[in-house]
Design a protein that fits this description.
It is a single chain. By secondary structure, this protein is of the alpha/beta class. It is built from 13 helices and 14 strands. A 7-stranded parallel sheet has the order 3-2-1-4-5-6-10, sandwiched between helices. β1, α1 and β2 form a beta-alpha-beta unit. α8 packs parallel to α10, α10 packs across α12 and α12 packs antiparallel against α13. The radius of gyration is 19 Å and the shape is globular.
């Protein structure tokens, strides 16, 4: 790991993925600064795990270009992880302009601020598996497949990919790396799950809330297939890309998929049934009636490039990821210290993929 003492900036550090990434970077000794809005939900991982204790936390909007420039000038990061976004499909139908302004112009603001700071060496921009033009076919999408997006969220993330490509070509061109010294990549993950996600209109948080309230879960699209994975799996990929960009320059400065094993692309109905078994207490579900906004029915990722060139492969099977997730929420219900519990899951996951130990869902999720 290269992280000890490295100056790192994370946008979106108050969100679900941003909080997990921030805790992981803190554990590895990074000098960490975050920029984000206040946590997006009243109950949230950022506060539960006291993420701000190990970093400088700046509350601000990435659409504020001046604030970004000031913060980057003060912190002088070497590595930038850009996660801040409006991340929900259904919310993008309610506020398409806000979705585009945050996701597209916000990204442009981040890249422009980074361009003006000579300390930056690596930029990792997080988009989504939904950036592809979804044709509802059976085979998984590769990084070279066409970008698209039916809904405003998916479309906005395809636009982000174009912004990244433009900045790479125009300002961080690999052929001129000796002059500017910056390498930039985009990363596309599947549907991430894990403890501490409380977002509305997102499958696993909706299921967990219903289980906690002892009421049946209402499911919109039980047959929709997604590439489900524990949040730590793609984060390991993001860290690997950042390390490569710092150590080897722009060789990996392109788009990357980080998804689960193909057998773990399962329908929503399978997910809710497995979670109900793990949760116990007679948990039940039912299909929600009525017309729903369009969402893709079939979506899988081809991660063979990451396997071949980075040595990255998914380590957790889906049942293990679900077990880790349930254990986290039940630990919170029991009043455990969630900073300690969350960092323990990170440590044990890191030990797991480094040593190939096996999952044990009865502790914090992985065998010690």
């Amino acid at each position: 790991m290269i992280w000890s003492g490295k100056r790192v900036l994370v946008t979106g550090h108050t969100g679900f993925k941003g909080s997990w990434l921030s805790l992981w970077l803190q554990q590895n000794g990074a000098n960490l600064c975050g920029i984000a809005l206040d946590p997006p939900t009243k109950v949230n991982l950022f506060q539960d795990a006291r993420v701000e204790l190990g970093m400088q936390s700046v509350i601000g909007d990435i659409r504020d270009a001046d604030m970004l420039k000031r913060t980057l000038a003060e912190h002088r990061p070497e590595i930038v992880f850009h996660l801040a976004a409006q991340p929900l499909v259904r919310s993008s139908y309610e506020d398409p302009l806000g979705t585009y302004s945050t996701n597209v112009m916000g990204t442009a603001n981040v890249l422009e601020a980074a361009r003006q700071i000579d300390s930056v060496r690596a930029i990792v921009v997080v988009t989504t598996d939904k950036c592809y033009e979804n044709r509802e076919w059976e085979w998984p999408y590769r990084e070279t497949d066409r970008l698209g997006g039916y809904d405003p969220y998916s479309s906005s993330k395809a636009c982000v990919e174009l912004v990244v490509s433009t900045y790479r070509n125009s300002f961080f061109n690999p052929t001129e790396y000796i002059r500017h010294g910056v390498a930039i990549a985009s990363v596309r993950a599947g549907n991430v799950i894990g403890g501490g996600d409380w977002a509305g209109d997102r499958l696993v948080p909706d299921i967990i809330r219903a289980f906690m309230d002892e009421r049946p879960v209402r499911i919109r699209n039980p047959h929709a297939i997604r590439p489900w994975q524990h949040v730590l799996e793609p984060l390991r990929g993001y860290l690997a890309i950042a390390e490569s960009l710092c150590e080897e320059g722009p060789a990996c400065g392109e788009a990357w998929n980080f998804g689960p094993d193909q057998s773990d692309a399962q329908p929503v109905e399978w997910i809710v049934q497995e979670l109900a078994k793990l949760w116990g207490n007679g948990a039940q579900w039912e299909k929600e009636d009525g017309v729903q906004p369009h969402e893709a029915k079939n979506l899988k990722l081809d991660c063979s490039k990451a396997a071949a060139r980075l040595g990255w492969r998914p380590e957790l099977r889906l049942k293990d990821a679900l077990a880790m997730t349930v254990v986290w929420y039940q630990a919170r219900q029991q009043g455990q210290d969630m900073r300690e519990f969350t960092t323990a899951q990170i440590t044990q996951y890191q030990d797991y993929w480094e040593s190939d130990t096996k999952i044990n869902s009865k502790s914090s999720g992985v065998h010690e």
